[in-house]
Design goal:
The protein is of the alpha/beta class. Helix content is about 35%, strand content about 15%. It has 13 helices and 15 strands. The chain has a 7-stranded mixed β-sheet, sandwiched between helices. A 4-stranded antiparallel β-sheet has the order 11-12-15-14. The longest helix has 24 residues, at about 305-330. It is globular.
Amino acid sequence: MSQDGTRSIDGYTSEDGGDVSTERPLLNRRLNGFGTTIFAEMSALATTTGAINLGQGFPDTDGPEAIREAAVRALREGKGNQYPPGPGVPELRVAISAHQERFHGLSPDPDTEVLVTAGATEAIAAAMLALLEPGDEVIAFEPFYDSYTACIAMAGAKHVPLTLRAPSFRPDLDELRSKITPRTRLLLLNTPHNPTGTVLTREELAAIAALAVERDLLVVTDEVYEHLVYDDSPHIPIATFPGMRERTVTISSAGKTFSFTGWKVGWITGSSALVAAVRTAKQYLTYVSSGPFQYAIAEALRLPETYFDGIRADMRRKRDLLGDGLRAAGFEVHQPQGTYFITTDITPLGEKDAYAFCRTLPERCGVVAIPNSVFYDDPDAGRSQVRFAFCKQDDVLHEATNRLRRLAS
């Protein structure tokens, strides 16, 4: 306490405007270096500059009207307006199980092998907190979705990156084997992969599965883009491979498939033992969420094949529209096999630093993008890579590419 009665902690000012001194920082040291996410930073930049936001991955149109009306109907009928069951409403858990069997030949028990979460992000956090001990090692592809490293850190574990290198962004399986140590607890996969758009092949998945079985590793796999795969690159869940069902936590969500990202309805499937472990951690995070929306997503998962084929075809067309525009603007474009992101290289534009490029791009062209360098432990590995989202209306993509052509001139 200072003479004027104010308090601060390591430069932080308390709500009463005071200063307090202490030897410990306020932020848990495990999160040292984790500030505001790049998505929040760049979206705020889009707002302040009025730029077209091709950075954060959310559609600019809503999903099917029938599903939105299903949520309204649930609200009016009083479904989910109070706390839903901790594991998720039965209707949604049954629908998730039926979806897994319909598309992937898996049939998790809705009562013991399915858990509904507040989006895939909570599923990742709950899985890391439940399955890891301090000192464990987690091997994950880089570039990576930024919450992966934060969740691993919160669990007290160590992130070990396996770098996917341009232009192919394929995993080096020999390098993967070399990174496994006695401390390795699990492999954290993401396929289709954000931000590169890589979809793991059957051969790659078989090799990873065999390695997991051989070394007795758990696998957590983020498959939120499971329906957004293009050019005959099928999505194959690693849980379908021999010996993997009992050691795999599969994560997915409704946001990307149905274009309702704000509803935050995600889920995990796996063996009853794994789901019970993750549920133990999850119940102390949100406990429950998205009550009325769970009933709507249960209906969405039962939509006919024409819906899933249609959104896949529409996103593929948008990918090609944006990709052609980026090439015309002078970018090197790495064609994605899945997701709704395109990774580019800015070297042909005479640029080297993706972060600096993205900070100035709104003023130069009126467009916001994301620097891939923030998705690497070693920023130099993706120093010149920039990610653009193509899950936008056609006229928005046309306008964005017209603006970006200023760079070519």
